[in-house]
Specification:
The chain is built from ten helices and twelve strands. It is α/β, with parallel strands linked by helices. It has an eight-stranded mixed beta sheet, sandwiched between helices. It starts with 13 loop residues before the first strand and ends in a 9-residue tail after the last strand. The structure holds adenosine-5'-triphosphate and magnesium ion.
């Protein structure tokens, strides 16, 4: 776990306030799936976004890029990047924002690398657009970038197709493309989930090195609190469309306040070899999205500390410590 730097906290690079995203043909009839996301990413830091499948992590990332899937709408809220409202950027500013200020890598590099085109032509095109380089300059820069992400024999790799590279190598290529324009923000949406443990560790280490070299900030999505604890300075925990807890990662990890965060941390596998019969702890109760609830806290059906008042909880993040907030108002009820 990284020690939280005692820095002077200026204006954040990225700030999201009360973001709601819904799906529907018409915006006003859309049903919200992201229902209340507020987070801050300070300059030069790594913010983790953690939560189980379907909690709204990827939609939140895509909203920052203004790349929601079809029929997805931002219903309300604010996304500011370096003081500018991302949701109000006009087309030219949005394109510039996407190509030079933010880079993004995804869980599955196949979704963003074109399988029918060589690595080189894809990199050159991306670099030409982002850096306005001529072809020769872009090729030279592509080779340098591949070397920076530790890809051996980079010139030869430019002639290859994505399927000729291993999963880890493809993720390095994606990182090289994303970092090509030296973006101030890198969004990494489950970049290592599809990789084996050793490759995952290498990619995470590389991510941190690239961040330090370029002085960028990272929004790192994972469903694994272990990865978040290892990599991040701060964390926002999501459940069913809400941020339910946020704060410095050490503080949240050592003193989790929301019962969902506690359950998530209890589910982190230990590094010791499991004894015979050991079972990885899981969060009890029906999985997300399988039960209806009448409002209030969506974790209620699975919460070991649920009480009737949980139906009236507003899901507002309340201060529980220095820079540490939780949406569960029942302090001390779950210790
Ligand atoms: N294209 C879509 N159309 C309709 N609903 C969608 C669409 N994409 C996502 N959703 C809804 O939004 C919810 C949140 O999706 P999102 O992809 O952000 O989850 P996630 O936290 O990234 O999950 P995972 O860990 O599986 O990647 C989903 O459970 C789904 O109900
Ligand atoms: Mg996702």
């Amino acid at each position: 776990m990284r020690r939280v730097a005692d820095d002077t906290r200026g204006a954040p690079l990225l700030e999201i306030a009360d973001l709601r995203i819904g799906f529907g043909d018409k915006q006003r009839e859309a049903v919200a799936v992201v229902r209340g996301v507020s987070l801050r990413l300070e300059r030069g830091r790594i913010l983790g976004l953690v939560g189980e499948s379907g909690s709204g992590k990827s939609l939140t990332c895509r909203a920052i890029m203004r790349l929601l899937p079809e029929a997805g709408h931002v219903l309300s809220g604010r996304i500011s990047f370096d003081g500018r409202n991302v949701l109000e950027l006009d087309r030219p500013d949005l394109l510039a924002f996407r190509s030079t200020e933010v880079g993004m890598i995804f869980q599955d590099p196949f979704s963003s690398l074109n399988p029918t085109r060589r690595i080189g032509s894809q990199m050159v095109e991306a670099l030409r657009l982002a850096l306005r380089l001529p072809d020769r300059g872009a090729t030279k820069r592509a080779i340098e970038l591949l070397a920076e992400v530790d890809i051996p024999d980079p010139a030869a790799k430019l002639r290859m197709y994505p399927h000729e590279l291993s999963g880890g190598m493809r993720q390095r290529v994606m990182l090289a493309i994303a970092m090509g324009a030296k973006p101030r923000l890198l969004i990494a949406d489950e970049p290592t989930t599809a990789l084996d443990t050793t490759t995952q560790a290498q990619i995470l280490q590389l991510l941190r090195r690239v961040k330090d070299d370029t002085e960028s900030s990272i929004l790192l999505v994972s469903h694994d609190f272990g990865v978040i604890a290892e990599m991040c300075d701060d964390v926002a925990v999501m459940y069913d469309g809400y941020v339910v807890e946020s704060g410095p990662v050490e503080e949240v990890y050592l003193r989790p306040q929301h019962p969902y965060t506690r359950a998530l941390i209890a589910a982190v596998p230990t590094l010791t070899v499991p004894e015979r019969g050991y079972r990885r702890p899981t969060i009890p109760g029906p999985p997300l999205g399988t039960t209806r609830y009448d409002g209030g806290c969506p974790f209620t059906p699975r919460c070991a500390f649920a009480r009737p008042e949980c139906r009236n909880v507003s899901m507002t993040l309340l201060p529980v410590g220095p820079a540490h907030t939780s949406a569960c108002p029942f302090e001390g009820s779950h210790r």
